[in-house]
Amino acid sequence: MAIPRIETTVLAPEGVVYQGEVLAVTGTNKTGKFSILPNHTRFISLISGPVILHEKKRSAKTIEVKNGVICCRENKVSIFVGLPLAREPEKKR
How distant, in Å, are the alpha carbons of 8, 20, 51, 54, 59 from that of 29? Predict the structure, then answer.
């Protein structure tokens, strides 16, 4: 029986940083660390800190993320990194 995997893409403004299949994805958001496993429910979150792509048992790739968005849907994870931060609108004087 094949081990279920997650199709994963990491995109930066410069282009594709990573594309492949992984066993799990671990990230960090405002509430703490989380992991996405195969057959995970739909999920979207702002992220900051490292993203760990668990490629094989005992083998992982870490991508440093200052800010980004992670989306999970139907065993596909898309991670958008290096996004510009939104600024507060200036108050009118």
Answer: 18, 23, 10, 18, 23
pLDDT of 3 reads: 81
Q: Mention every residue, 6+ apart, whose C-beta is less than 8 A from residue 93.
A: none
Q: Which residue has the higher pLDDT, 59 or 78?
A: 78
Domain boundaries, the chain: 6-81
Fold exhibited by the domain 6-81: ATP Synthase; domain 1 (2.60.15)
pLDDT interval class at 15 (50, 70, 90): very high
Token pair for residue 5? 């995997």
Residue from 25, 42, 31 nearest 81 by CA: 25
Give the pTM: 0.85
